[in-house]
Task: inverse folding
């Protein structure tokens, strides 16, 4: 088995990285792994997906939690031996949809969300869905999230929490400044065949894709759609979406 490890930069994650290397019967191959261990929190998972975005078909992610929330990270460090045994069993896999964002023709991918926003001014622009001009935007920004990303930024913006393997995207406006004649209709949940097109009118704004962000001076078009790509995660049979929600949000101390 060819494997690689993406780890958070803290003591616990570094120790676990050493332990994985000692325990696993395989070859460390950073360039072409079939298994990628993510050791950290959800942020580390986002880094791992970004690093291997063009290899997603070939890899399975094994996400071990040494982070804070860890919505993606089903495994605990003490479960290392157990999860190594599970690696051959291809039935223990869950696939999460990814968003494809095209910024003036340049393509990027998001596991959580794409956010277009401005600080200190209103972000202004127009939203089209499948070619129909749907709404004007006057807001801090727009967040378009995946189902698995729905429990992240989207949730703070009062978007709906979505069961994690549905194939759809969700659009919410951030602090919309509503006017009577141009009403907003969000949260808006769209099926996987739709395309959202944002035409910004603001001169400059940021676009963040998961953890990364870039400030843009002028962009004509931002297109967002559900990608053909999916992220494969090793899944724990004792976990499911309702349990995850309860553990991470309801019973959290
Ligand atoms: P961060 O600043 O460390 O905080 C993000 C928090 O959200 C972390 O506690 C992270 O968990 C958790 N998280 C990430 N993805 C999640 C998911 N799908 N479901 C539930 N919780 C999730 O940033 P980060 O760790 O690099 O994560 C980047 C994400 O932060 C972005 O994709 C965005 O969703 C989110 N974010 C949220 C807000 C907000 O809610 N106001 C603002 C900006 C960004 P871990 O502790 O396990 O890493
Ligand atoms: Mn984090």
Result:
């Amino acid at each position: 088995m060819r494997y690689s490890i993406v780890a958070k930069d803290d003591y616990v994650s570094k120790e676990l990285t050493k332990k994985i290397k000692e325990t696993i019967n395989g070859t460390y191959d950073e360039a072409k792994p079939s298994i990628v261990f993510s050791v950290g929190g959800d942020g580390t998972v986002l880094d791992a997906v970004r690093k291997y975005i063009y290899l997603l078909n070939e890899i399975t992610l094994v996400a071990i939690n040494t982070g804070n929330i860890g919505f993606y990270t089903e495994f605990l460090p003490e479960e290392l031996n157990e999860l190594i045994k599970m690696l051959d069993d291809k039935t223990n896999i869950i696939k999460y949809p990814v968003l494809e964002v095209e910024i003036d023709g340049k393509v990027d991918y998001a596991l959580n969300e794409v956010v277009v926003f401005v600080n200190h001014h209103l972000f202004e622009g127009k939203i089209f869905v499948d070619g129909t001009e749907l709404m004007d935007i006057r807001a801090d920004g727009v967040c378009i999230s995946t189902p698995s990303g729905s429990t992240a930024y989207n949730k703070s913006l009062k978007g709906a929490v979505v069961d994690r393997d549905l194939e759809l995207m969700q659009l919410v406006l951030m602090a919309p400044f509503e006017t009577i004649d141009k009403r907003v209709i969000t949260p808006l949940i769209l099926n996987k065949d739709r395309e959202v097109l944002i035409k910004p009118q603001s001169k400059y704004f940021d676009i963040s894709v998961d953890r990364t962000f870039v400030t843009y001076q002028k962009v004509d078009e931002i297109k967002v759609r559900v990608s053909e790509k999916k992220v494969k995660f090793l899944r724990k049979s004792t976990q499911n979406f309702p349990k995850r929600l309860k553990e991470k949000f309801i019973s959290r101390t």
Remarks:
- The pocket of manganese (II) ion (ligand 2) is lined by residues 41, 43 (CB under 6 Å).
